[in-house]
Amino acid sequence: MTIKLLAIGKTDSKSLLRLIHEYEGRLKHYVKFELEIIPDIKNTKKLSTIQQKEKEGEAILKRLNPTDTPILLDENGKQFSSVDFSNFLQKKMNAGSKRLVLIIGGPYGFSDAMYDMAKGKISLSKMTFSHQMVRLFVVEQLYRAFTILRNEPYHHR
């Protein structure tokens, strides 16, 4: 299985980028991992919130394959412990998912079309985090999940 993290907008912080790349490197020992950043939508001042979410949704949908399992990172999604998240990933691998795509939307969330096509929603917390920090948290939790599945000491139970 391949895991792809798809996100809207670049990360400006060099410190966050360094940490994201560190966990990307660690993840490659366990699973094929891809990170794709979709450029911010231009001229958003002229768009309503709904129009911006629709344009972002269109950009995301263009990058998905029909066989993908798209999961939205959404504040109203299911919350997991790290162990439960590792079990979720194991189930996806056991089910034969070719590519699990975790999607971080733009600042206003997702369009209705995105919610309609998604195969699930995950929330990292009831708290709100910047989209840039969410990328780091997701990559770290993916790494942690694989160390849990391999019974390695990174995650202390």
Automatic annotation (TrEMBL):
Task: Extract the signal peptide range.
Answer: none
The organism's superkingdom is given as: Bacteria
Pfam families given in the database record = SPOUT_MTase
What the entry lists under CDD domains is as follows:
RlmH-like
Identify the species of origin: Cerina litoralis
What protein name applies here? Ribosomal RNA large subunit methyltransferase H
PANTHER family (alphabetical): METHYLTRANSFERASE, RIBOSOMAL RNA LARGE SUBUNIT METHYLTRANSFERASE H
> Record's InterPro entries?
Alpha/beta_knot_MTases (IPR029028), RlmH-like (IPR003742), tRNA_m1G_MTases_N (IPR029026)
Which Gene Ontology cellular component annotation is one that this UniProt entry carries? cytoplasm
Residues at which S-adenosyl-L-methionine binds? L73, G105, L124, S125, K126, M127, T128, F129
